[in-house]
Amino acid sequence: MPVHKGRCHCGDVRVEFATDTDTDRIAVRTCGCTFCQRTRPVYTSDPNGLVTYRHKPGALRTYRFGHESAEFVSCARCGVYLGAVTETSNGLRSVVNVAGALLKELAEKTATPMDFDDEDAETRNARRAKNWTPAQIEEIA
Ligand SMILES: [Zn+2]
Description:
By secondary structure, the protein is mainly beta. The protein has three helices and eleven strands. The mean pLDDT is 95.
């Protein structure tokens, strides 16, 4: 499966997004939530793909707010926001921030605005379990 590779600014966290979808067919989107209004991420996901976060010891910082149903993952050293992860009925899932991780071919695409603020927690969890990318988090030396 082709892999889009990126990292945070300092390199302590690396991000790999594996997907069989052709690059020109991958949709990217923005989110209107109060966190994303400030951090301006551009997201993508592929329920048939795989996203891997590889981080040095202590390099992952996570943040929760609102429903506290997802963790927003940043680099503890350089502060770059890399994506969100959540445990779903289908296992750990993620949306990757292609702008923060600088997945170059994807970061240049035009993003579609999305707004999920009106969802209840149950609807949100079901959507993430269905649409977000299977994810793994690994510590590296
Ligand atoms: Zn960093």
